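Technical annex B. To support the medicinal chemistry partners, we prepared a structural model of the target in complex with heme C, based solely on the information shown next.
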Amino acid sequence: MSLTPSLQLLAAGALALAFHSGHAQDAAAGKTAFAQCAACHSIDGSNGAGPSLQGIDGRKAGIFPGFRYSRAMKAAGYAWDEKTLDAYLADPQKAIPGNVMPFSGVSDAKQRADLVAYLKTLK
Ligand code: HEC
């Protein structure tokens, strides 16, 4: 059987998707895990006890408009990506000493990876 190029592309895409869903990072599971963050963090741009996490992927730490960050968070000096989010969520005080997020962290590496995968979907 010979597939047309577009069908081949579709098949390749389906395969990639199949691999992806079996991958270590699972945004759907991360969305569920986000329940432990949602009391303080919105995803729609409104600040609460914590800054909104809308568009967090690639955003510089400590700059969301209207939120009063700690000095430590404002001085972090880096942007949020897979690596920095993972380190911060693993141990907030170790990653940014003196930041005031009242949250001890997520010890489970798989759950952190899922959370980060979900955070990256927030535009
Ligand atoms: C009890 C409230 C609370 C909970 C629960 C909480 N956070 Fe936070 N978070 C904060 C506060 C407050 C800050 C700001 C800290 C500062 O300014 O030092 C913050 C900051 C952050 C930042 C940096 C945001 C920025 O604009 O630079 C990220 C990312 C973040 N939290 C992610 C999470 C995730 C993911 C969870 C759940 C696993 C979570 N937080 C749970 C209150 C909370």
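Notes passed to the chemistry partners:
The first helix runs from residue 5 to 21.
Helices lie at 5-21, 27-33, 71-74, 82-90, 92-95, 109-119.
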